[in-house]
Amino acid sequence: MTMKRTGWMAAVLAALLTAGCMSTVEYGDATSMKPISTDFGSADLQMIAAKMVDSLLADDMLMQDISMNGQPLLIVDKVKNKTMQHIDTESVTDSIRTKLIRSRKFSFQDRTTEAALQEELAYQQTAAQDAIAMGQQDAPRYMLTANLSEIEQRAGRLKDVYYKFTMNLRDLKSGRLIWADEQEIRKQKTRSIFGS
Amino acid sequence: MKTVLKWLGAALAAGWLAGCATNTTGITVGAGTDAEGNLQEVLQVDNAKLARRLEVASVKTGQTKNGLLKANVRLASKMTKTFTAQSKFAWFDEDGVEIDPDTDSWRPLVLHGKETKTVQGVAPSAAATAFQLRIRTGDKTKWIIH
């Protein structure tokens, strides 16, 4: 009686454990916010982009100033990655630029596709009957520049990483910085007593 | 010995099953003008435990100078301990259709003991006339955002 009972329980436990051992693959939520490590993650990127865009769009005085002659034309500079990690900072600026373009309050120039554009225009001069003349692009008036830095601190089992993303809007004519905002993020990891 | 094993087995099974699926329900707060221009407020509570810990102090909407809807929600914590929640905005146009669904990400919301915090959002386009702020506790988070 007891042997059968313990045997049955052992079988149930074994079934439960082995079910947990199989590897699973499933689609996750792209907007979820669960931190996996203290490294710079996708949710950090989304938060930074959202904060910068909200801040730009909500700044009434700035929007009035730069939209005086119609929709302002901006260009985005590469983000200076001052962290020790390899981070694709272009994806942060891509997110910011996409949201701003979709708000229909800003226009952007994109220098990263300049080579493709020049190639197409050069080809059009030779082959197209209504070719676009070269040298007709609009010049951007404002530039978005940004910095991403991190400060890491360790003490015993605690690892604390602090990220700061600073973004500036610069008037290319006067050289002045007319808008700035920053987003600070802190991630903490406490190692368990047994292993990591 | 037998009863110890039985309780141990039951506890292990319960613990294993509890870790399987987290409760991700929450509270939805919203406001907006409907087709006739009347202000409509929404407060939907799906998680009673969260409603005991969190109170919606005020909901304000405004417009930026260039016609974008601004939303301002003040949340007050009723707990004495720090607790972390997540929040996300959803924006609706005048037909009640959600604008760009599922593009805004969950943002962490950290409330210290009895703290009142303001969550602000700006609509992604000028077509928005109503908003909803969704709050949930969901997946455990250990972030502190300043």
The end-to-end span of chain A amounts to: 42 Å
Overall pLDDT level of chain B: 81
Which architecture of chain B would the CATH scheme give at its second level? Sandwich
What is the name of the CATH superfamily of the domain at 39-111 and 138-188 in chain A? Answer: ABC-type transport auxiliary lipoprotein component
Summarize the structure in words.
- The complex is a heterodimer of chains A (196) and B (146).
- Chain A has 196 residues and is an alpha/beta fold.
- Helix content of chain A is 37%, strand content 26%.
- In chain A, a hairpin with a 5-residue loop joins strand 5 (158-171) and strand 6 (177-190).
- The relative contact order of chain A is 0.15.
- The mean pLDDT of chain A is 89.
- Chain B is an alpha+beta fold.
- Chain B has a single domain, classed as Sandwich (Immunoglobulin-like), CATH 2.60.40.
- In chain B, a hairpin with a 5-residue loop joins strand 3 and strand 4.
- Classes of the chains: A alpha/beta (196), B alpha+beta (146).
- At the A-B interface, helix 1, helix 2, helix 3 and strand 6 of A face helix 1, strand 8 and strand 10 of B.
Concise account of the structure shown:
With 196 residues, chain A is of the alpha/beta class.
Secondary structure elements and pairings:
The complex is a heterodimer of chains A (196) and B (146).
Chain A: H1 2-21, H2 42-58, H3 60-66, E1 73-76, E2 80-81, H4 89-102, E3 107-109, H5 114-127, E4 142-155, E5 158-171, E6 177-190
Parallel strand pairs in A: 1-3, 1-4, 2-4
Antiparallel strand pairs in A: 4-5, 5-6
Helix pairs in contact in A: 2-4
Chain B: H1 2-18, E1 26-33, E2 39-45, H2 48-53, E3 54-63, E4 69-77, E5 83-93, E6 98-99, E7 107-111, E8 116-122, E9 128-136, E10 143-145
Antiparallel strand pairs in B: 1-2, 1-9, 3-4, 4-8, 5-6, 5-7, 5-9
